[in-house]
Amino acid sequence: MAIFSRSGVRLWSLLKKTSRLCYASQHTAVDSSQYVTAGCPEPNGPSLQTSVPGPESQRLIQELDKIQNTGSIQFFVDYAKSQGNYIADVDGNVMLDIFTQIASIPIGYNHPNLLDVMSQPENLSTFINRPALAVFPPKDWVQRLKSALLSVAPPGMHQVQTMACGACSIEHGQKAMFITYQRKKRGGMPPSQEELSSCLSNLKPGCPDLTVLSFSGAFHGRTMGALAVTHSKWIHKLDFPTPDWPMATFPKLKYPLHENERENMEIENRSLDEVRDKIEEYNRRGRPVVGCCIEPIQAEGGDNFASPRFFQELQKICKENEVVLLIDEVQTGCGSTGKFWAHEHFNLPESPDIVAFSKKMLTGGFYYKDDLRPKEAFRIFNTWVGDSSKVLLLEAVINTIKEYNLLDNVKDTGKYLKDGLHEMEKKFPHCVSNVRGLGTFCSVDFPDGLFRDNILNKLRSRGVHAGACGDRSMRFRPTLVFQKHHADIFMDAFEKTLQENQ
Amino acid sequence: MAIFSRSGVRLWSLLKKTSRLCYASQHTAVDSSQYVTAGCPEPNGPSLQTSVPGPESQRLIQELDKIQNTGSIQFFVDYAKSQGNYIADVDGNVMLDIFTQIASIPIGYNHPNLLDVMSQPENLSTFINRPALAVFPPKDWVQRLKSALLSVAPPGMHQVQTMACGACSIEHGQKAMFITYQRKKRGGMPPSQEELSSCLSNLKPGCPDLTVLSFSGAFHGRTMGALAVTHSKWIHKLDFPTPDWPMATFPKLKYPLHENERENMEIENRSLDEVRDKIEEYNRRGRPVVGCCIEPIQAEGGDNFASPRFFQELQKICKENEVVLLIDEVQTGCGSTGKFWAHEHFNLPESPDIVAFSKKMLTGGFYYKDDLRPKEAFRIFNTWVGDSSKVLLLEAVINTIKEYNLLDNVKDTGKYLKDGLHEMEKKFPHCVSNVRGLGTFCSVDFPDGLFRDNILNKLRSRGVHAGACGDRSMRFRPTLVFQKHHADIFMDAFEKTLQENQ
Questions:
Q1: Which of A159, A242, A359 faces B383 most closely, judged by CB atoms?
Q2: Would you say the ipTM is above 0.85?
Q3: Higher pLDDT, A285 or A26
């Protein structure tokens, strides 16, 4: 992928600086802006007026609580005033945001290139007339798919399906697995009358007992099919009927990696053996394993990494067993590991069979190999199958990534951030452990969840808004325009917090 | 609901006429506009330049076919040039649209009130900074939920959850059923350690074997949980593993209704008996029926209606058996039956337990009774849980419905349309049968699917773009701004087509 090259910058991004200034000025709400980060004006640092959530957030939480459960609300946000890496709340607090809407803001808040999209009258109809994309696509749809989604497709993948969100991307990716498996099983014959009628009542043979393998600690979404391959926390799973599908243990590596090479290889080998065993067991029980879902880095489950060798071996096992390999890049995709797709770090001999995305990509969806393309219409389908306005915005995101070499930025800042975290690990060995990461997709562990939550609260009172994952981890999910001076702001607040808490 | 009253019109809708003119002029692409329908300029009728799909649509289909299966594509659309009830394709054809993106365009293409939303600089940040709504909601979120979603809530419902689309609204509505059932079963006790750990591996008791009852011919969506209660066509179901959940027969009424009252009552009673039997059977098998999903009118399954008495009895059975009743108003909601929610036609003694919506509502989601509200945070949750920009647009839609008394318009036009269809039924008794409908949510049957498809093609060559449903039905799904003169255009084309084909 040549998405680093400046030569790819399209003329329009230069032509539109004027209209940008006009829109940016309307949105430059924090008057003290001194910095411009990858084209986006930013305040010169966090500034707090109240504790967070402040009184206005608390009032709004009480109001909202009359309408729905608000236990997950952290604070109310003033999105018009948020800029770049800084999130502004309704109490006038401005925080450095390294959680970014659960890792879903690609190039910062109110980036001028996104405001640009809104300033073009010819784009407005895309936002107010939502098409049934698989029946009545807009005239520029093919071009948008090419210039946005296909321009960053994982090597070797030429087919793409848009979807509304991550969970339905996984669900429809699984359906592509099932369709393909049954088509091959029929050996070119059409489905039988019995299949066609029994499927209407959820019965065999029309609804066969196929399974998908997944991993302990995995998170793939919250609808029934996506939830069946999710195993990270009880809060997502308890009380919900779920098919009995095979689960293998995801390797839990020991850090630092270079001191634990042999043990980690053994841990991974045990996991791979379990994958082989589960496939064999479920196949034998007449419940064939037709697919395997895996995150390149388990995020929600605690930022669990495995080695490139692990993924290479997993792909080999899948191929030997005719199991479709789906890599879930919903949280890892779109550049935050320093490559556009995290699985590009694995040097797989060939691309995965399906790559699912959402979050920073703004649209859900999945790439798939030609073999997985359904032969019949309406098999992978719903009313909207995504949203063309999100693909329009994604095109601007991808152009911005190219324009400002943001993958290079992520690599540089990520190294700087990780070096800083290792320093903290040395300085505060009883507090900070297991520093790990690719690009700015980094994380550290604390002694336990309570300790972690306390650190997150203290960081917020210093103007740094970070997120948790797993039992006792803090995850870094900054934007792609997060730079070294932002990392400095974080590290300063982190060090002071650790000094207080050691 | 006082949504008919003009007194509810908010001042801003009057104040913004000026900006409207400015934006409308940019989008008045069909110069011959003579009509203004509910505030929206429209061409004076259909006009065709080529057959549909024309050469440019065909070229684009070929291009798109390199990227995904295109078997479901009908034609490519010029959304900027589409206006009100008229859809413009890429070959310069302008058609009267009574299918409207599978029933998902509420107030016509490019309505000035929607363009207004885009013309306010303070709204732009809502379109480019998508929040994680259940963690970091925008400052106007409570107000938006009140003025948009709660202002049209079904009587007696005060809780609402937004979602991205129809399928995930059903899935999360089902989760609310499961959570509530298990909470009651625990009688106030917390979940056991065994439940908390077993659910992570998809096992009992954490993942109990609960079921949801649904009906033959039903359509509720295409993710695994929504698909488990869907039974309309094999194309949605074949090859996908699906839980064995109970299905009862949906009544297939005989028309005309007034000539078949006794027989229809018997048909409905048999269906109700089956519901009782299935609940009893599955409960006995240790697979308790905790919920029931039903459409007020089965749309995708063939526009199948049942009587208010049927729904009243169904609600009674559900209450007797502590089964949560979910009414799926994804296609029927937002006014097209002449009431805002189709189930309001049923005079239920109390509201359903859950009402799901999407399509014309622009955002997915569901209303639910207080009892179904989860006690814990993160139980009904995902990254985005909907999209605040869609709720912003929905607010403008609802204000427009009020401003132009569009529910009255739907009732008037619907009666006019149905009278016309009855006339066609009399004139062409061998072609047209089973005229039925509420508001403009109407349909007719033809002798078979081939006949129907031929009629739809002929209608299109006369500039009228309609949709199919079921085996041999044509469904009317016009916008809420569809008026008698539009019905005349349809009826004229329909009569000519029938004359040719009788």
A1: A359
A2: yes
A3: A285
